[in-house]
User: Which sequence fits this backbone?
């Protein structure tokens, strides 16, 4: 069974892998504010998927298996310097790109200090909820066509991606209110969100630095710096 078929077998029937509509990135802030609950409903449907037969953490390999045994191994292992492929000896970037060593190490530690909040929390995640990767009609449907980054992690990772993409939409603030309204309890919400956000933030920062996208790097760094105050004010 292929990777997409295995993922489909895990998914809730309410999650659409072949959606009709337009790219969600085309929504204005006002349009998103009017339909954000639709997005949140669908992300939580992904998180409700059945994964009892899947062990571990991290992005699925071609056999649809996560490569890490624990959340700690996943988050820390992502930044190993001796891994094969694109990120081999990536720490050389501290000397050759805009990637700032002090900034990276600060938020790597912030992430590491919070991993225990996420350890043991295993959900199917799309892990690519940037608005260019979601399709919607803006009213009743949201779909997810590209599952190449899917894996197992704390489900807050999918909300983190949305916020990292468009921090001005105030995703964690909206999610906090959404959960309160619906009686959904997310234990250790702030710390788990920060852990996933620092993980995804410095990983995405590393990518943009590797392609010399200095403008995006500045934006990502600003978002990471501001997030803790945003979360702790909830």
Assistant:
């Amino acid at each position: 069974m292929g990777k997409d078929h295995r993922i489909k077998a895990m998914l809730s029937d309410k999650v659409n892998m072949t959606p009709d509509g337009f790219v969600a990135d085309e929504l204005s802030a006002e349009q998103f504010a009017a339909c954000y609950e639709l997005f949140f409903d669908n992300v939580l449907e992904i998180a409700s998927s059945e994964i009892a037969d899947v062990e571990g953490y991290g992005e699925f390999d071609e056999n649809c298996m996560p490569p890490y045994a624990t959340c700690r191994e996943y988050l820390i292992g992502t930044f190993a310097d001796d891994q094969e492929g694109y990120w081999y000896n990536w720490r050389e970037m501290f000397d050759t790109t805009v990637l700032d060593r002090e900034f990276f190490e600060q938020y790597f530690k912030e992430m590491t200090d919070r991993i225990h909040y996420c350890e043991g929390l295993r959900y199917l995640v799309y892990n690519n909820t940037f608005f260019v990767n979601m399709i919607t009609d803006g009213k009743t449907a949201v779909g997810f066509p590209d599952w190449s980054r899917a894996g197992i992690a704390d489900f807050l990772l999918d909300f983190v991606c949305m916020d990292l993409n468009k921090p001005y939409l105030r995703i964690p603030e909206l999610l906090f209110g959404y959960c309160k309204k619906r009686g959904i309890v997310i234990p250790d919400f702030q710390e788990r969100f920060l852990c996933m956000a620092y993980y995804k933030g410095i990983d995405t920062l590393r990518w943009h630095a590797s392609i010399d996208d200095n403008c995006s790097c500045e934006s990502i760094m600003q978002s990471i710096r501001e997030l803790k105050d945003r979360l702790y004010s909830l």
The chain has a mean pLDDT of 96.
